[in-house]
Design a protein that fits this description.
The chain is of the alpha/beta class. It has 16 helices and 23 strands. It has two domains: 161 residues, Aspartate Aminotransferase, domain 1; 266 residues, Type I PLP-dependent aspartate aminotransferase-like (Major domain) (Aspartate Aminotransferase, domain 2), CATH 3.40.640.
């Protein structure tokens, strides 16, 4: 057993250093040149070197799929087929019951697709339950296609900070709308706070009341193990799961949808075109009755899908449980250090024993706008983070207003709302497989320095016409920039 663990850790260490862009150097506002510290993985991850190198090899054989006529077509078709099966296996989805198909550029396209599918599959069920913490991609599509969307609140903790979805409230609403609930749609991991939802408990509750369950797995697939089917209690199985390739270490890859075949087979596919029909006549067409062809019209993003499957293969060999454990150590370390700084406001329940997190931490510095904090972290420390509302406005608004109400009680509601609009947003740091303890050190030291020099940094920036915080003198010089036309000029010897 010891030998296996050691082997896995060695492989993890090898993979951690094999990402494109880890050593990218930029010139900072104080003149220093340093490698960037990438803490924006929740938005998009860096490119896995193994997947990139594999893709370069694959392009030697690239052809369109849907053919077994010539050598390249045979290779492409077989590898594209392998990509579907590899992802099903990775997420523990029985290939007899589930299919995997690729769509769009991320999770958004897949959820929009399934919102329409689920609506048509059960037309007599017109209510969808979602959590208040959802990304817009797992909220707005349901609002568009369902008659009514009900937002489930989050569990309250003694700290006053919200945690994961409140299962008691979920059950109350399942009872209330018992005959109308079509499905429950919930994120596996919040893109704002990194808080993990108990997806199998949610599935069990939903199924007990006759509802389906859809999991937004954009923040989950690359960070922790997922088992869609094969539970001893089948009620804990997941009906549909969607995730993004660009959040799974392969920028440029498609989104992936995993869904029960019986749901998809019950209705005509949402999209029609070449590759998914058995035959076409002047007055009719016959759709294929097998997957994934039935759900993939036209020529897909073959290279992206194969590269994604390659990254999935690597993650599986490393062991997602190992990745989850190692990333958890980083998140907990960062959290504990941030909690010691009285000038930092951390959003969401911070006690990991009460509420598990993965990947993300969102915060604000008292007396500094989130845009300014993000700008300073970039310009003076070369730490890449994200700020504002992260396409989760209701959740961010609730977190910020709760914090404001705790701090101020004697001003009118309209003033609170005005203050919120002024301060709306927060700073998010997020981790990936490539992050190391020294990245947490860099973040912690940077935040301490920003707090200690708060007044100085405030004077160094102004707000431009677009609302962005811009340094008064420092500009992004050519050496920090990247220009495809300039590179093409050089390549083509254009003077």
């Amino acid at each position: 057993m010891t030998m296996i663990v050691q082997s896995e850790n060695l492989l993890l260490a090898k993979i951690q250093n094999d990402f494109i862009g880890l050593d990218t150097v930029y010139t900072l506002a104080d003149g220093r040149k340093t490698p960037r510290v990438y803490l924006d993985s929740t938005a998009s991850t860096l490119m896995m070197g193994a997947a990139h190198d594999m893709l370069e090899e694959f392009f030697e054989h690239y052809a369109n799929s849907h053919s077994l006529l010539h050598f390249s077509a045979k290779i492409t078709t077989s590898q594209y087929d392998w990509a579907h099966q590899r992802i099903l296996s990775f997420l523990g989805a029985d290939p007899e019951e589930y299919t995997c198909f690729f769509t769009g550029s991320g999770t958004t396209a897949g959820i929009n697709r399934l919102a329409r599918v689920f609506r048509d599959y059960r037309k007599d069920k017109d209510v969808v339950l979602v959590s208040i913490m959802e990304h817009h991609s797992n909220d707005l599509p349901h609002r568009k296609h369902a008659d009514e969307v009900v937002h489930i609140p989050l569990k309250s903790h003694s700290s006053g900070q919200p945690g994961s979805l409140d299962k008691e409230s979920l059950e109350e609403n399942l009872k209330k709308y018992r005959d109308r609930v079509n499905y429950v749609a919930v994120t596996g991991i919040s893109n704002v706070t990194g808080i993990i939802n108990p997806i199998y408990d949610i599935a069990e509750l939903a199924h007990d009341y006759g509802a389906l369950v859809l999991i937004d797995g954009a923040q989950m697939a690359a960070h922790m193990p997922v088992q869609m089917s094969g539970h001893s209690n089948s009620s804990r199985n997941i009906d549909a799961f969607v995730f993004s390739g660009h959040k799974t270490y392969v920028p440029g890859s498609p989104g992936a949808v995993l869904c029960r075949k019986d749901i998809l087979m019950a209705i005509e596919p949402e999209e029609l075109g070449g590759g998914m029909v058995e035959d076409v006549f002047v007055d009719r067409y016959i759709i294929k009755d097998y997957f994934p062809d039935r759900e993939e019209a036209g020529t897909p993003n073959i290279p992206g899908a194969i590269a994604l499957a390659a990254a999935i293969e690597v993650l599986d060999r490393v062991g997602v449980e190992n990745i989850f454990r190692e990333e958890g150590i980083l998140v907990d370390d960062a959290m504990e250090r941030m909690k010691k700084n009285p000038d930092l406001i951390i959003y969401g329940e911070t006690n990991s024993e009460k509420c598990s997190r993965a990947g993300s931490i969102s915060f604000n510095i008292k007396g500094m706008h989130h845009g300014l904090v993000a700008a300073v972290l970039n310009d003076y420390f070369n730490i890449a983070v994200r700020n504002e509302c992260f396409c989760a406005h209701p959740y961010v608004k609730e977190l910020i207003l709760d914090d404001m109400l705790d701090a101020i009680t004697d001003i009118p509601d309209e003033e609170i709302e005005a203050k919120y609009k002024l301060l709306a947003g927060m700073v998010r740091v997020s981790f990936g497989i490539y992050n190391q303890p020294e990245d947490v050190d860099a973040l912690s030291n940077a935040l301490q320095e920003i707090v200690s020099r708060k007044d100085e940094f405030i004077k160094l920036y102004h707000v431009d016409e677009n609302g962005n915080y811009v340094h008064n003198t420092f500009k992004m010089e050519k050496e920090n920039n990247f220009s495809i036309p300039d590179l093409l000029d050089e390549y083509l010897n254009v003077k």
